[in-house]
Amino acid sequence: MSAVSSRDLTFSLNKNISFSPLSWRPSLPSRAIFPRRQKPKTLVVLATVLDAKPTVLVAEKLGDAGIQLLKTFANVDCSYNLSPEELCTKISLCDALIVRSGTKVTREVFESSMGRLKVVGRAGVGIDNVDLSAATEHGCLVVNAPTANTIAAAEHGIALLTAMARNISQADAAIKAGKWQRNKYVGVSLVGKTLAVMGFGKVGSEVARRAKGLGMHLIAHDPYAPADRARSIGVELVKRGIRIINVARGGVIDEEALLQALDSGIVAQAALDVFTEEPPPKENKLVWHENVTVTPHLGASTTEAQEGVALEIAEAVVGALKGELAATAVNAPMVSAQVLSELAPYVALTEKLGRLAVQLVAGGSGVKFVNVTYASARGPEDPDTRLLRAMIIKGLIEPISSVFVNLVNADFTAKQRGLGLTEECIVLDGSPENPLEFIQVQIANVESKFASAVSDSGEITVEGRVKDGKPHLTKWLASKGWKWGNT
Prior knowledge:
By secondary structure, the protein is of the alpha/beta class. Helix content is 32%, strand content 18%.
C-alpha cells in the first residue's frame, strides 16, 4: 500500500488564505497551495499581478455621489449612449458595469468580456434589461439598488392617484387650450375609497401607508408578502368604475386589455408611469386616451432618490469587487453579514477539502458523485450551507479545469459538468456555539492515485474541522480505516 502524505498532495490547512468568493482578484494563497493548470497570460492577469485598480464602466448617467465613491476604489469610465457594438468592444477592459434601464446587458456583452466582468450594477430595482442566465453562467454577480428610490416611487404613485382622481392633467390641458370646463372635470374624493395594492413589497407598503393617511381603505395582494406586513390578502371582485395606477413595471398590465376596459367603462381611469415599450410609440392609444394620465417613467425621479440610488449601487459594486457578498445580489444567495462572518473559516475549509479530495482521484474529470456531510450541534436547518457548497464545488472543479468558479456560477458549473452533489446534516450532542463540528466530503465510484486513499467500495473521503478559527484536516479514509491529520 502506498502512503498518503501532505508532500504528495501539496496540502496545507494552516496557511492563511484570503476569503474572497466574489473578488475580482484571484485568491493567490489558495492557488499557490494547490497549483492549477496555467492559463494564457492575458492583460487581465497582468493587471492583477501589478495590483492595478479595477475599471468600472458607467454606461448611463449616475449621481455624482456614486461616481465619487467609485473613484476611491476604481478607475471610472463614464461612457453614455453606447451602441450594443460599442458596449461589447469596451466591456473586455472592464471589471464592473453600471447601467440604468436604458442599456441592455445581453449574453453578447458577457461573452465579449472574456471572463473579466465580475459585477453588473443596476441603478434601480428592475433587472429585466440584464440577461441573468448569461451572467450566472459567466460567474458575474448582478446587484441592484432596491431601496433608495422606494419613497420616490411611492410618492409618485400617490401623485398619479390624486391627479387622476381630480382630472388634473386633463383640466390643465383644457385651460392651456383656452377652455374653461369646470363641469366636465368633476373629480372623485379619495376619502372612504378602497385602494387595492397589487404587490405589497417595499413600494407597495409605502403607497399603502400614505393612502391610509388620505383616509382610504386598503386591501393588498402579494403571495410572497409576510402576513405581519400585508394588512389583508386577496382582492375584491372587480367592479365597474375602478381606477388603476401603475408605477411598477410596464409589462405588469396588459395594455390592450386595459384599453378595452377603459372603453367599456369597467375601468374609469388609469394613470401610467411605465409602459411595455418605452418610450411608447406615437400611435399608442393609451397615451392619447382622455381618461388616462401618463408620465415618462418618473417614479424614481427626485433629487434625493437619484443620489440615493447612485450611492447604493456604487457601494454594492465596490463591495462585490472587494469580494464581499452584496445584500442586493440578484443572482447569488443572500448571505447576511453575521452568517458570513461566522462561516468565514469554514469557507476556507470546504474549498480546501474539495481540492484535496479531487487531487486524490486518478483522472479528476471523472468525478460525478459527491456527498457532503455537515455535523452540527445546532438544528438541521442551521447553518445555511449554500456558500459552503459553492466553495466545495470551486475546490473540486478549479484544479482540474480552466473554469473560474465563484458563488454566482458554482451550481451552474457543477450541473454543466455533470457533477452531482448531495448534502446532509447530522445533529450531534454538544455546544451550539460553533456552527459546525466537522465537514466531510466523499467522492463515490472513483479510482485513486494512492491505493490507501480509496475504500473497497470506491470512495474517497476527507474530513476537516475548524479549531481556534483556523481550518484543519482531521482525517482521510484509508483502505484499513481512518488516518488522522494534524489537528
